[in-house]
Amino acid sequence: MTRLIALDVGEARIGVATCDTNGFLASPYKTIHVTRNEQKTWEAIQELINELEAESLVVGLPISLDGQIHGQGQRIQAFVERMKQHITLPVTFWDERLSTVEAQRLLTQRGQDGRERHQKRDGGRQRPQGKKRRRGHEIDALAATVILQDYLDHLGK
What we know:
The chain is an alpha/beta fold.
């Protein structure tokens, strides 16, 4: 099995996950900030590829519940087409339906969500932006992990 990287592509951030060299277990790796300068995004992805010695990319593709690819899915397909001009690894699209929902559920299960506790403890005030932003990064990388683990599980069948 080769080392894989999964990308959960969003408008502001890209969640990144990787797996062990046996292709058994996916884990969150990091989050990349998307800027207007796509060249920086390609460079960041290439750095990850080099760092992890990845040989293939799995990109989450949002497919609607009716099985169609709509706006966000089309944006991700266009993103990957532009990326292919800069990054030569093979790319596999994988249905990411509900991966963010699953990532949020996992964070809640791990006790790291904490929204209800914060609202009760501090009278419902907004949490500091840093915690909210950090939670978004965790969800993005965890969503990429859900996508990659689902892909790995499918390969192992």
